[in-house]
Amino acid sequence: MDAARGLDSQDDYSPDEDTKAKELEFRGYVSKKKDGSDRVNFTAFYEALLNAKGIELGGGSAGIGKGGRKLSYTAKVQGNGNLLVGKAYTAMLDLAPGDEFEIRLGKKAIRLIPVGGEENEE
Question: What sign for the dihedral angle of Cα 50, 51, 54, 57?
Fold first, then answer.
């Protein structure tokens, strides 16, 4: 997270923009929805604010997924045949979109090995 953009700076801040949404938009905590409208990212702002104050909320707690739920470390084959590994697991391994894996099949087992990586790495 980018340490609460602009929290320590009042550069170009206009006191006329006193609503929370306008404040967050001013600080850059806004993204576009699929329909093209703006979405104010309150959660990202509050997480950055807490992080800037030295308070870490669950960022490094292994085994805890979104919403504080414990991870099950199981996956089900979906109706279309896909096997989905959730974001909580990929985030724990710092995986990014575009990371590639070699698929190795065994008896009732699937192993994903990072391309160019070590198989024994845990």
Answer: positive
